[in-house]
Amino acid sequence: MQPLPLDCELAQAPSHGLAYKVHAQDGTALRIGVWSDNSTQKGTIFLLPGRADYIEKQGHTVSEMCAQGFSVCILEFRGLGLSDRVAKDRRAGHVEQFSDFQLDVDAAISAVSDLKLPQPYFLHGNSMGGCVALRRLMSDHPFKACAFTSPMWGILLPKILLMIAPTITGTARAIGLGQRYAPGKNGENETLAWTFEENEITADADMFAHLQHVNRQTPDHWIGGPTIGWLQQALHETKSLASLPSPNIPCVAFSAELDQLVTRDAIEDRMSEWSRGQYEMIPAVKHDLLRADLVTRSNVVGKICNFFESAD
Predict the structure, then answer these.
(1) In angstroms, rounded to a whole number, what is the distance separating the alpha carbons of residues 277 and 247?
(2) Of 132-141, 168-177, 247-256, minimum mean pLDDT range
(3) Which has the closest alpha carbon to 124: 105, 139, 100?
(4) Average model confidence (pLDDT) across the chain
(5) For the chain, what percent of residues have pLDDT higher than 90?
(6) SS3 letters for the chain?
(7) pLDDT digits (tens, 9 = 90+) for 29-76
(8) In whole angstroms, what is the distance from residue 106 CA to residue 112 CA?
(9) Cβ–Cβ under 8 Å, residues 109 and 88
(10) Can you tell me the distance from the alpha carbon of 300 to that of 243, in angstroms, rounded to the nearest whole number?
(11) What is the structure's pLDDT at 274?
(12) ∠ CA 34-302-309, rounded to 5°
């Protein structure tokens, strides 16, 4: 594994974090960030992030997980951060097929094993990472328990668009337009383009200012909007997963009352039949619970860590 840059100070993460280049089975180069020392031996949490996230934007969550006694591994999926970009336009949020993300997760698991981070392993999927994590749990896996924050198990679109989007995006992808931006999207950084009032991520002004600062300082890391191909694959994957029963693993999941990106109905439907699952809706917060105000974020992360520690 080749060491890679990681700005712990910018991320406001513990200073002992390290980043490495690892390779997926198909040769794609990926960046992972790991935090582990003598005080974090309760196990290792694999944090799978959202569509436009990268390691330096996860510092607060890492700090709280480490303070609870857990080691952490964050994966930058292909197309994100300093991992290999997929589209010709490096700002485009693109993936050829969602199953490629499973190769990325497997590479992170292998790397953590090689680094001898402590077991047991736990899986935490945030937003798009929640979709990828759920798929990973549908087959043999090494995880003792799992957690989800605002998982992308359904995409929030007007009903009429939700009905026609799969056909339109599938046709566009079939005729070679998959790497074009989805309608209304482009390569600009939405976090920097938004005002606080416009942003769809957090209801906390201090956190939004921090995210803007991180994005300004890391111009090589961020991506813009999703492509038609990404949207087509996301719609296909969420529909496919919805038809499958929940895996037999302890699970805790949280949704956000003011979420404008993923459907709370899909989360509630899934968790209502998850036999070993717990679910909570967090009021008065926007989509990203890991970027909520300090009290809310600490409460959610604390509950996840307590759940992991007590999982059978």
Answers:
(1) 10
(2) 168-177
(3) 105
(4) 96
(5) 92
(6) CEEECCCHHHHCCCCCCEEEEEECCCCCEEEEEEECCCCCCCCEEEEECCCCCCHHHHHHHHHHHHHCCCEEEEEECCCCCCCCCCCCCCCCECCCCCHHHHHHHHHHHHHHHHHCCCCCEEEEEECHHHHHHHHHCCCCCCEEEEEEECCCCCECCCHHHHHHHHHHHHHHHHCCCCCCECCCCCCCCHHHHCCCCCCCCCCCHHHHHHHHHHHHHCCCCCCCCEEHHHHHHHHHHHHHHHCCCCCCCCEEEEEECCCCCECHHHHHHHHHCCCCEEEEEECCCCCCHHHCCHHHHHHHHHHHHHHHHHCC
(7) 999 999 999 999 999 999 999 999 999 999 999 999 999 999 999 999
(8) 10
(9) no
(10) 28
(11) 97
(12) 75
Please give the Cα distance from 165 to 310 (Å, whole number): 42
**Residue 37 burial (CB < 10 Å; 0-12/13-18/19+)?**
exposed
How far apart CA 178 and CA 265 sit, in angstroms, is 28
User: What is the rounded distance in angstroms from the CA atom of residue 185 to the CA atom of residue 266?
Assistant: 24
Q: Which amino acid is at 227?
A: T
**Contact status, residue 205 vs residue 250, Cβ threshold 8 Å:** no
- Tell me, what's the pLDDT at 164? 79
Q: How far apart are CA 251 and CA 253, in angstroms?
A: 7
Amino acid at 9: E
Could you give the CA distance from residue 288 to residue 302 in angstroms, rounded to a whole number?
Answer: 16
Q: Residue 160 above 70 pLDDT?
A: no
Q: What is the mean pLDDT of residues 285-309?
A: 98
Neighbours of 235 (CB within 10 A): 18
Answer yes or no: is pLDDT of 232 > 80.
yes
pLDDT exceeds 90 at position 1:
no
> Measuring CA to CA, which residue among 176, 204, 166 is closest to residue 295?
204
Contact 69, 41 (CB under 8 A): yes
pLDDT tens across 77-105, in order?
999 999 999 999 999 999 999 999 999 99
